[in-house]
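User:
Hi there, any thoughts?
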Amino acid sequence: MLSNRRIKMHFLKYLKQNRRIIVLYFFVQCFFTGSWILYHNDEILLVLYPVLVTTIVGLVAFLLGFVPYYKKITQLEKVLIFIEENDRGPESFHVQVHQEEEKMLLEIAEELMSKFKALEERHFIKEADRESYYALWSHQIKTPITSLKLLLEETDGGENPQINRYQMLEEILKIEQYMDMVLHYNRIGDMSKDLVIEDVELQKTVHQVLKKYSILFINRRFQIVVDVPEVRIVSDKKWLTLVIEQILSNAIKYTESGHVRIRAFQEKDLVRLVIEDTGIGIRAEDIDRVFEKGFTGYNGRLDQRASGIGLFLVKKVMDQLKHSITVESRVGEGTKVVLTFGNLTKM
């Protein structure tokens, strides 16, 4: 019953597609029949016989033409059903085709299906990574929030309210860092749409980052040495600020004593910004993997708050901005990160 209904529906579509030929055929038949009757009124039967025969032949030819049309439509419906269900690979989909146009159409459909499935898999992986990061992020941000609550309780009637105040500001800064990180993580996939390439004053940008992180230097009481001359580079200020903040944050996090030094210098057409510390350093076997997503290394195992996302974002941003980054480190001596900018402007 359902099959008959489908045949009837497709036959009506076939009639609609060929309506001009049908109308033209009957017009020609009527024209010649009418002309014959007009001039041979007494010999009507002589024209009715060939008209009847040609009509039958035309009808048979029309019906025979519907058969390949129906097969073609059925094959295309199978392709559409296959695409909608999407529960098998293209290699498992086979139909019998004979016309070159149909073969080409099915090849295109299978190729599109293969690409669609690949995109779907990448989207699934991306969403899984995003959910994993959000779970880690929600765990990380609880730490400064909990610390902040404890500090607020201690401040009431505490003996050193000023010290608690500095510590609370540090925890607030950490919360801001985590918020910035998750926002930039969401945007990194479409970073090109968010870029604003302009002249950036490197010295001014570094000083703004230092001002934001000044509370960390106060609490840790180690020295910060800055030697960044006035030089301009072509970059995106917002994303470059993220890079400097992340590297400086890591330098502070893993340096218990000594100093953090930030310097910049020009070599021919290049400007290098160097951020180095006297912290715990990075193991030799970890140095080549620090930019991998989710990699925390030995230091990350010591610091449970490490996510392995920060330097991953830094490398992504630097590549997008056409800058370069290198890392040198020795365990127990410290780490040096070098940012190299090749697009300079004159003051």
Q: What stands out?
A: The two ends are 82 Å apart (CA to CA).
